[in-house]
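Section: Multi-chain targets

For targets with more than one molecule, the full set of components is provided together so that the structure can be written out for the assembly as a whole rather than chain by chain. Components appear in the order listed by the source. The example entry contains three components.
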Amino acid sequence: MPFETAFLATVLPELILLATACAVLVLDLYLNDEQRGWNHNLAILGLAATLGTVGLLSNNGVTIAFSGSFIRDPFGDLLKGIILILTIFTFVYSRDYMRERGLWVGEYHVLVLFATLGMLIMVSAHSFLTLYLGLELLALCLYPLVAFDRDSKPGAEAAMKYFVLGALGSGMLLYGISMLYGATGSFGFADVAEVVNAEGLENKILVFGLVFVLIGVAFKFGAVPFHMWLPDVYQGAPMPVVLFLASAPKIAAFAMATRILIDSLGALQADWGEILMILAILSIGLGNVVAIAQTNIKRMLAYSTISHVGFIFLGLLAGTQEGYAAAMFYTVVYALMAAGAFGVLAMISINGLEVEQLDDLKGLNDRDAWLAAMLALMMFSMAGVPPAVGFFAKLLVLDAVVSVGLTWLAVVAVVFSIIGAFYYLRVIKLLYFDKAADSTPLRLAGDAKIAITVNGLAVLLLGIFPASLLGICNAAFSG
Amino acid sequence: MGFEKFLFFLFAIITLFSAGMVVTRRNPVHAALYLVLTFVATAALWLLIEAEFLGIVLVLVYVGAVMVLFLFVVMMLDIDVAAMRAQFIRYLPLGLLIVGLMMFNMILVLGPGHFGLEHFAKPAAAALDYSNTEVLGRELYTTYLYQFEIAAVILLVAIVAAIRLTLRRRPETKYLDPSAQVRVRKGPDRLRIVKMPTEPVPAPVSQAAAGGKNGDDQ
Amino acid sequence: MAFLYLLIVLAPLAGAIGAGFFSARLGRVGAHRMTILGVGISCALSLAVLAGFIWGDLKVFNDSIYTWMIADGIRFEIGFLVDRLTALMMATVTFVSFMVHIYTIGYMADDEHNWPQGSLAGKHSYQRFFSYISLFTFSMLMLVMSNNFIQLFFGWEAVGLVSYLLIGFWATRESAVYANLKAFLVNRVGDFGFILGIAAVGMYFNSMNYSEVFAQAPQFADTQVAILGGVSLMTLICILLFIGAMGKSAQVPLHVWLPDSMEGPTPISALIHAATMVTAGIFMVARMSPLYELSTTALSFVLIIGAVTAFFMGLIGLVQNDIKRVVAYSTLSQLGYMVAALGASAYAAGIFHLMTHAFFKALLFLAAGSVIIAMHHDQDIRNMGGLWKKMPITWLTALVGSLALIAFPGFSGFFSKDAIIEAVGHSQVFGAHFAWILLTVGALVTALYSFRMYYLVFHGKPRMDEHTRSHLHETPWVVTGPLIALAIPSIFIGWFTVEPLLVSNWLGDAIHVAHEHDSLHALAEHWHGQMAFIEHGMHGWPFLLAMSGLGLATLIWWFGVKLMPNLDALLQRAGGPLTRILQDKYGFDDFNQRVFAGGGLGLGRLFWNAGDQVLIDGAVVNGSARSVGRLAGQVRWLQSGLLYHYAMAMIVGLVGLLTLYVVF
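Its structure, encoded as tokens over all components, is:
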């Protein structure tokens, strides 16, 4: 049956989000500059409603709708929930930053909401076509967001690079999809999986397509050597956009990787596992080493992202249920940490200061001890220092890798993450042991403080009690 | 070799040739025109496999709209062809190497070994009243409804993004507002009759100044 | 039930968090109200649980509440095992803690005088103190209620941490910082053994859960481990675990931290370093009885260590002049009695003594604290005397505590201590005879030091200066109230609990005693009621020695000091080298200082010079940092900022991977 009205109920979260985005688009026309807060409130309300609907519709079963192009399962529900929460965080963190720079206009909310919609579509895609369209929707929102500050030259340059490289990446993905279509005669993950299971590695077309598709995935994640856009975009884009870009889309990219690699090309694990291994080693190595040489905090965190992507790939390439769950845990945790870290940076970029260089963080502890503590917590977590959750994430991934006999790989990863610890700890040193150039205390909005506290506590509590999230991650892959 | 095959090779060769010319032409306008040729030849290939709708859309949308727009842009921009040329030569060896490897791979995978005619049976001929367009429409609005709607959202986003990035008011730019021009009425806007008392003959300056002073004193 | 137990544990934690993090907002009164409420809830519920076990038919609760993680099939969980042993410990811990909370309001009332003017460390010290003691209660409850080794270890370390924080509470005093560091380091030695023991359990039993481990234990009774030429696995595990207990329960030679811990405020000495935390080791061994029963060697080791501690630490108490230190050495000695009971497989007697001791020792400490408040924080007993007239309540309650301590017939300490000595006498393990002699003579020593202190403090001529004497008065009700509340169980609790605990096996399955080790068997067989037990005790050596000690003490420090005020000093001088040995505490501190501290320092310096500076800093760290830096600089040029470079990199990557996977 091609279409049933009941399908609309399963995509209710997406519909609500779409309605919210359109409502903001229209509402913005009737607001003057003092009333822009309504955009903000409406957007958050819509996201919360979407989150609630995702929760309400969630159950342990699997629903497939729209002729096999849409799937709702517990895995997707969790990732969607986290994407929505991170988007809410993004709005809360970014308000003062955007308002101060005159960027707090309706388009910002509209584009972020549409990007979120794109991510939700990606997460619950059950065919290559849906996945690709979701990806394009997301990317098409991100390009203008990167150039959102129209007067910023670096912003325009970054957006241009992102756009061209993104088009290239999408082209490769699309070419790979067409190859898979040519070999299997279908776009649906389930149908592709059927053929792939039957033919496996024998079919060279599948392998050919796989490489292209994998490159699309690697580009979205920013794995070496498809990472080049990442540092430039992080540097050029406004801080809240980086915050958004670094957190939620990583989760969508993970969903994309899982849906493609595990759900549909699971039988080719031997091949994609090896490709991921190459990409993972390159990413962990290059990311950690180059980050040390950075003086710009956004670039530094960009390279740190690259190295974390390597760790996520480590979990995936293990090819076991344990490894997938570890990778999922890592992705969620990383998105939380990135949101927190960039959130703090966005929050302190006020009163005319634009935090760009590492030196801008000097003595933050004297200006706002709580924010400094939160940023330090994020850094500890990214470096993998217990009890912050980053430690657990790394441990689980390494455990998964070791349990499939790739101990040398785990050793390489550990060595590079020790090198990486240096630049995270350097931030902490700057926060606490250096004198600030300007030590006037910061005045921050209450809701942003609450959000960063929730974010920080999540990183800490998940580190102390990882079982809850880990249990959900395990359950997502055990079915 | 049937006539169909001959047509296929003819258009395929045209496509490849014109695509090569797009990349190597010095003059961007020439390159763009070769791209038009590429599209037309591709459209012919579509027609050969009885995908009439797609062939027509390719010509209408790409040749008719996109490429014309593109030509406008190319003509308006001042591109330093010589500098591009220098870069082209510099990277040519690496480019050739990559192209060579890529070709090798593609021939290996996409060659007759996998995609030869013997691997794919000839599809049954469609009925006489078969309409490509109708089937596409039916599929789009039923099976691919979800994707279709997403594509609509993507277009909406593209509009929002374009407006955000380009629509702005520059205070230093002088421009005419046509709606304001049209709205002007003869009545009070363009012509105004003002009633005022007759002016006295201007007095000499010194007297006036003195008079003003006197006036102040009064 | 899980909710109830969770509430018992979390109520003090909530108080601790509130008082600790919101100290400025809550203020002093808010902080102590909040923490006392938390501990009060916990105490009331614990007593209810205990009552449920005594009069009701509460079922043993053994369940996991939260799975922290699973590694290699071993589940790391948070769970509770609440049986009668646990209920008894919970009630004891929360009751004493509750008393101490109330008492602290009086003791810490003028704490700002203990800090230098305007000291940052002293800011909100009052609230911080309450936060710490509530946190301690939480940690101790986690320890005793645990149903697995990991949570036990968590509680174990958490109480150690709080103990460290509280010994060094007055952080601006150098002696306090020294003492807390010492306590921390010595405990580290014990904990090292402890965690090795837990690791051995994990390695062989592949589980952290008590009941699973205990169920498997008999299968491993004959397993040998190839360490030191072959040791029985059970002996190894038990001794390693016991090394942890030696650290926490201050047994020779890891006892050195406990006397120094008296640098902390007195409520802490009462709560942590007398009544509860130091008994964690005793509790742990009793809990592990199914393991210990499988190793006679370990039992014998435990017995001898306990007896040695009991006797020799008591002796040191004789020459101490600091009121708190006397009580501290008496604590050491009493802990020795409990450990000896464990060694003799008389776990019930050990736990029994633990409970009675918790009450009378907390009482004695709080009484000492009351004296210290009255004396304006002078702790030297040579400056006291004749306090009984001014402080009647403190005087009477201290008398109750002392009588209980020396095992005066009818007082709670009598039942427990007599049972221990009797059980050791019946024990068959190696060294039992030797231990019995030490413990029996120990009774004499106990009586001597207890009443030496008692008489010097409360009787005789007042020796304090004029200013202090004119200000002497009884302490406020928040101090005397807990004294009275603790004095009552110090007298009666033994009478009421001896029969269920020792005779009718009330603890039930919580404790496992092998038939051939059952040293309390004889006592239970000849049980004819409490009066008969007292009469029987009056014919025994311990009673005779204790009474003669009491008589001797009365003779010397009451009558003798009346005649000759400097008799105590004269006696100490007459002791000659013996006194010096005791005053040097057998040279443990000097030995540790020279060999371990000095040796450690030398070794550290050697490693620092040769290993760290040359090898690690020079070659590894700086060397690799240099090469990483160079590498980073070189890789950076790849990121040229030019778009076609980036695109080229992507395409090269694509073609590389394609060639790798399609061709090969």
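Chain C is about 70% helix and 5% strand.
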